[in-house]
């Protein structure tokens, strides 16, 4: 049985752990708010953008002259997976869930005899995938010194992706990230971004647009931006999900620490009582022996 | 007086403005264009330039670097890659943009040189118009 001093130290140590997890929870709550605001602010752009691209690709998409970004290379032999995870840990199953989805996809694609290439964004996912798939890695984007996610970061990733697509390094690109639903639920998602799949929305009401310069020129100009826009949206979702996951993980940790402190305190009090009783027995039996 | 038209300017990171205006002067890829209410539905791509929205007694100016605009009879939506109110432009931003554009031009595929060259030239032009120096 641990002695009283050990128990006391143990309680003090768990208490300070609880303080830390509590503080982390509050920090991620604040960060989550900011991440959600950023995601909210980017929505009008993404919505209008997708609507216009939807209308455009509906009218040009079927033709033979459709850009490769929209029509694809006509093959799906080489698959590029972009796995987006966080740079920091202590966020519950957030990274593991994304990586698990990616692993499933990799196994599936390999079983079909496809070539798989992996680009990782964020350190944590890279670490988890390194053990089994380090030979598939082609590039890594490090966002660890990024304070505030900006469109430039998405553009940077998109640029790398497009350069590879232009030099025919892959046929299909899929991004893996976590969609933010609420603080306790984040849904790992796989989304194909190249070739792009835009749905023509109904609300354009069949309005026929004039295009300046030409329909094809605008589409060729917009599609690469579309890749960046989708990556940006995914990065923002991921950031919000990460903070949400961390918040609930830290909430759990704080609660567990509290339970542990209660248990240890009971144990401590019992031991203390036992020591006192023991001492009394010794004194009384000593007195009786006289 | 001209009828009012809803004008929205959004960039990927934020919504810059959403107001009723009379006309908007847009730097289109093929030349400037002034859009007013009742415009034919049009989609045009932008070049780096100054976008001016004029409404009842107000005039707002924004620097945009690229993207596209969607015009219809009663709305004008501009989706700019990067948009800044004119007042937020600074020498720092200009230098940054020019550096990026120069780098992009140097790295660009020879087939795309005319595009990056034009982008750079437009950028220099707008920067000089606003009174910033453009030698890096």
TrEMBL record, chain A:
Query: Does the keyword section mention Transferase?
Result: no
Q: InterPro entries this protein is in?
A: ATP_synth_F1_ATPase_gsu, ATP_synth_F1_gsu, ATP_synth_F1_gsu_CS
A GO CC term?
Answer: plasma membrane
What Gene3D superfamilies does its record include?
Answer: 3.40.1380.10, ATP synthase, gamma subunit, helix hairpin domain (1.10.287.80)
Q: Any keyword Lyase?
A: no
- Report keywords, A-Z: ATP synthesis, Cell membrane, CF(1), Hydrogen ion transport, Hydrolase, Ion transport, Membrane, Transport
Any single GO molecular-function term of the entry would be: proton-transporting ATP synthase activity, rotational mechanism
Name the PANTHER family on file: ATP SYNTHASE GAMMA CHAIN, ATP SYNTHASE SUBUNIT GAMMA, MITOCHONDRIAL
The name of this protein is ATP synthase gamma chain
Automatic annotation (TrEMBL), chain B:
Name any one Pfam family assigned in the record: ATP-synt_DE_N
CDD domains on file:
F1-ATPase_delta (cd12152)
Cite a single GO MF annotation. ATP binding
Task: Specify the ATP synthase F1 complex delta/epsilon subunit N-terminal domain's residue ranges.
Answer: 6-82
Localization, per the record, is: Cell membrane; Endomembrane system
Q: What does this protein do?
A: Produces ATP from ADP in the presence of a proton gradient across the membrane.
Please give the PANTHER family that the UniProt record associates with this protein: ATP SYNTHASE DELTA/EPSILON CHAIN, ATP SYNTHASE EPSILON CHAIN, CHLOROPLASTIC
Subunit annotation: F-type ATPases have 2 components, CF(1) - the catalytic core - and CF(0) - the membrane proton channel. CF(1) has five subunits: alpha(3), beta(3), gamma(1), delta(1), epsilon(1). CF(0) has three main subunits: a, b and c.
User: What HAMAP family does this protein map onto?
Assistant: ATP_synth_epsil_bac
Q: Which family does it belong to?
A: Belongs to the ATPase epsilon chain family.
Q: What is this protein called?
A: ATP synthase epsilon chain
* Source organism of the structure: Celeribacter baekdonensis B30
